[in-house]
Design a protein that fits this description.
This protein is mainly β. The chain has strands spanning 2-4, 12-14, 34-36, 39-41, 48-51, 61-63, 66-68, 81-84, 90-92, 95-97, 113-116, 126-127, 130-132, 135-137, 152-157, 159-160, 163-165, 168-170, 174-179, 189-191, 194-196, 207-211, 218-220, 223-225, 230-235, 242-244, 247-249, 253-258. The protein starts with a strand and ends in a 70-residue tail after the last strand.
C-alpha cells in the first residue's frame, strides 16, 4: 500500500483490545499481525503503529516498509514506527528517514523505531521483541528541544529480553536508547549495529548507545563513530553491562559511566574494543580493515543487506564482502 497525506491519527494504525494498564501476554490481543511492504509518507502523527501484539504460533512483523517525510501534525510525538504493548514482534528491513519531530516536544519525539509498553505504568513490560536490519537516518529533523532519546534511531522503553542487531543509523540525534526498564535483568542484546554522525549540538542526544536503566545488557560488535558526547553512555546506576568487541571512534568521551550528562566519568573499555578510525566507505569496511573478522561467532545471522555474517564476523551492520575465488 501507499499511504500519503493522511491527517491524524496517521498512516497505518493497528490497535489491540486490552486496556493499556492491564495488558499482558495472556490477555486477548492480536497475533500474527503483518505490516509489510508499505510506503508511508506525508502523514501526520504516528505514520505506522501497532499496539497489543502478543506472542503465539506466528510472531507479528513490521517489515520492508518505507516510512519518510511524515510530521507530527500538532502537539503529538511523532515516532516513525511505533510498537506498543507488544511481545515477540519482529521489526526488520524497514527504511526510515526524514520524519519531522514535534518541535519543542517534551518526551522524546521523532524516534525512528519506538518500542514501548506503557510509559505511565513502569510495572508492565513488553518482551522478546527483535529490531534488526533497519536503515534509519535524518531522524532529528524539526526537533529542537533537548530530551533524552529525542530524535534517536531506536528507543526501547519498558522492555526486557529484546535483540537490536544489524541496524544502520546515521545523522540522527542519537543512536540506540534503552530507558525505564523495571526488571532487574532485562538482558537486551545490542549487537552488530553501525551508528554514524549521531550528534547535534554536542549535547545529550549525541550518544551512540545510551543505557539509562536496567541491568544485564550485552553490547557487542557495534561500530560507533562521530557521536559527539559519547559512543557508549551507561548510567552509573546500571549494573551487569557486558560490552566487548566494539569500535568507538571520535567521541568526546568514548565510554561514559555517569549519572549525569554534565559530569562525564570515563569508563574502562574492554581490551577487545578498538578506538581507531574504521574508515567506512558507504558505511562498509574497506579492504584490509582490522575490523574484518574481528568479532566472535554469535550464531549465523544476516547483516543489514541480507548477507550472512562469517565466522568470525566483522564488526558493524555490514559484513565485509569477500572476493569470490576465480575458477581456473
Amino acid at each position: 500500500n501507499t499511504l500519503a497525506g493522511v491527517t491524524k491519527p496517521g498512516g497505518i494504525q493497528h490497535g489491540g483490545s486490552a486496556a493499556s494498564t492491564t495488558i499482558t501476554n495472556s490477555d486477548r490481543g492480536p497475533r500474527g499481525i503483518w505490516i509489510i511492504g508499505n510506503q508511508v509518507y506525508g502523514n501526520q502523527s504516528y505514520p505506522l503503529s501497532t499496539y497489543g501484539a502478543r506472542s503465539g504460533a506466528r510472531a507479528s512483523r513490521i517489515a520492508s516498509n518505507h516510512v519518510y517525510n511524515n510530521n507530527p501534525g500538532g502537539l503529538v510525538d511523532s515516532h516513525a514506527i511505533w510498537v506498543g504493548a507488544s511481545f515477540n514482534t519482529i521489526v526488520e528491513n524497514n527504511i526510515v528517514h526524514d520524519n519531522v519531530g514535534w518541535v519543542n516536544g517534551t518526551s522524546g519525539s521523532c524516534v525512528g523505531i519506538f518500542v514501548d509498553f506503557n510509559g505511565s505504568n513502569t510495572a508492565i513490560v513488553g518482551s522478546n521483541n527483535v529490531i534488526r536490519g533497519n536503515v534509519i537516518y535524518n531522524g532529528w529533523k524539526g526537533e529542537t528541544k533537548v530530551t533524552t532519546g529525542a530524535g534517536c534511531g531506536i528507543y526501547l522503553l519498558n522492555q526486557q529480553d529484546c535483540i537490536v542487531g544489524s541496524n544502520l543509523i546515521y545523522n540522527c540525534r542519537g543512536g540506540i536508547t534503552v530507558a525505564r526498564d523495571t526488571p532487574a535483568t532485562p538482558a537486551h542484546i545490542i549487537r552488530s549495529n553501525t551508528i554514524v554522525d549521531c550528534v547535534k549540538n554536542n549535547d545529550t542526544t549525541g550518544v551512540g548507545i545510551l543505557i539509562d536503566v536496567g541491568n544485564g545488557h550485552t553490547i557487542t560488535q557495534n561500530i560507533i563513530t562521530n557521536c559527539g558526547l559519547s559512543g557508549l553512555f551507561v548510567n552509573s546506576g546500571v549494573s551487569g553491562v557486558t560490552e566487548s568487541y566494539n569500535c568507538i571512534f571520535n567521541a568526546n568521551v568514548p565510554y561514559v559511566v555517569s549519572a549525569s550528562f554534565t559530569t562525564l566519568t570515563p569508563g574502562t573499555l574492554s581490551v577487545t574494543d578498538k578506538t581507531t578510525d574504521p574508515q567506512l566507505v558507504g558505511f562498509r569496511l574497506p579492504s584490509g580493515s582490522d575490523l574484518i573478522a574481528a568479532g566472535v561467532h554469535l550464531g549465523y545471522r544476516r547483516d543489514v543487506a541480507g548477507a550472512q555474517f562469517w565466522n568470525p564476523p566483522s564488526l558493524g551492520a555490514y559484513e565485509y564482502v569477500r572476493a569470490r575465488a576465480t575458477r581456473t
